[in-house]
Design goal:
Layout: H1 2-23, E1 27-30, H2 33-41, E2 48-50, H3 56-65, E3 70-72, H4 78-90, E4 93-94, H5 96-105, H6 113-128, H7 147-152
Parallel strand pairs: 1-2, 1-3, 3-4
Helix pairs in contact: 1-5, 1-6
């Protein structure tokens, strides 16, 4: 039983690692600054475009001009679903990673990312002593985990 749980958690960890790796090769569109901060704290280094309070057409033009594939990562509330639909129509943007993050971590908001990773890390540690976070640990409050800061250390 414990081995089955451990295997399931390790498979989930691998899937999450794949999602993070895929995110890093795209341009990520989020609603606001706290969403961007949550991604940075979780180790995502992809360029992030803030969409909150801006016209969708302008954001879509800006995103497309950067020449990277775009990933929509809006919250899973009514507003986030509306924005996902709107941006999906305006530009070729990937929503598969958004769906995978919801399925794997049970997210309702992007801001929950650190908390959900921490919860999952505890489960992994309880079952086999392995660490979930792709950079060794889920950062504590105030710790920045992007590559630029890791190189400076």
């Amino acid at each position: 039983m414990i081995q089955m749980l451990s295997d399931k958690l390790l498979r989930k960890k691998k899937e999450i690692d794949k999602v993070f790796h895929a995110l890093d090769s795209t341009l990520v569109l989020v609603e606001g600054k706290r969403d961007r901060a949550a991604l940075r704290d979780a180790g995502v280094t992809a360029p992030v475009v803030l969409c909150g309070g801006r016209k969708a057409e302008r954001v879509a033009e800006e995103a497309q001009s950067l020449g990277l594939p775009a990933t929509l990562l809006f919250d899973w509330d009514d507003e986030g679903e509306r924005k996902t639909g709107e941006y999906s129509e305006l530009m070729r943007a990937d929503i598969r990673l958004r769906k995978k993050m919801k399925r794997l971590l049970g997210l309702r908001t992007v801001e929950e990312l650190g908390f959900r990773l921490s919860e999952l890390e505890k489960k992994v540690n309880e079952n086999n002593g392995k660490n979930l976070h792709r950079h060794g640990k889920v950062p504590g409050e105030g710790e920045l985990r992007d590559r630029r800061h890791r190189r400076e250390a």
